[in-house]
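User: Can you predict the 3D structure for this chain?
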Amino acid sequence: MLCNIKIHPFDIRDIKPRVLVPMHLFKFMHNREELKSSTFIDAIERYDQYAQDLSGVDIKLLFPGESFEYSHLD
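Assistant: Here is the predicted structure, written as structure tokens:
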């Protein structure tokens, strides 16, 4: 699942994806506060708060331009 970093973890939990790729990390937003809240550290802290609800979801934090290959046969 590709999702905006602003999506609440409960919404992610309800969809039950196998893999989550938060988007718009390190993206220049409208102001400095939004930029500060779109870092890896902020994303990790946010998802860690809901670790029990997100168990079984593989969260992939990617730098801009980075990619990964997903195989449903894993």
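The chain is about 30% helix and 15% strand. The chain has one domain: 2-59.
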